[in-house]
Amino acid sequence: MSQLAPFVVYAFATTHDALGAERALIAAGVSHTTIPTPASIGVLCGIALRVPELSVADAEAALKSAGSVWTARLEMSDRTG
Predict the structure, then answer these.
(1) Which residues, at least 6 apart from 39, have a Cβ–Cβ distance to it below 8 Å?
(2) 15-72 pLDDT tens trace
(3) Burial class of residue 51, CB neighbours in 10 A (0-12, 13-18, 19+)
(4) What's the pTM value of the predicted model, to 2 decimals?
């Protein structure tokens, strides 16, 4: 039986912003995945960052510390297993 795995997607206004945010997450050792920006977020940069729910607090602290500003934040879930 599959379970739901919650995660948060951060979208950015520009590719430059998205890549800077990714560098901040890498430097902080925060688990994340680079994904295409979901269509439901609207017209933004084509790159978004997906962060597992358990890493969201660390991700947001790292992004804020680096001065990264996300344009949209979307909570989602995937089926696993």
Answers:
(1) none
(2) 999 999 999 999 999 999 999 998 888 867 889 999 999 999 999 999 999 999 999 9
(3) buried
(4) 0.90
Domain 3-80: top CATH class = alpha beta
Report CA Rg, the chain: 12
Residue-wise DSSP of the chain: --EEEEEEEEE-SSHHHHHHHHHHHHHHT---EEEEPPGGG-SS-SEEEEEEGGGHHHHHHHHHHHT---SEEEEEEEEE-
Q: Which two tokens stand for residue 16?
A: 């430059």
d(CA 5, CA 78): 5
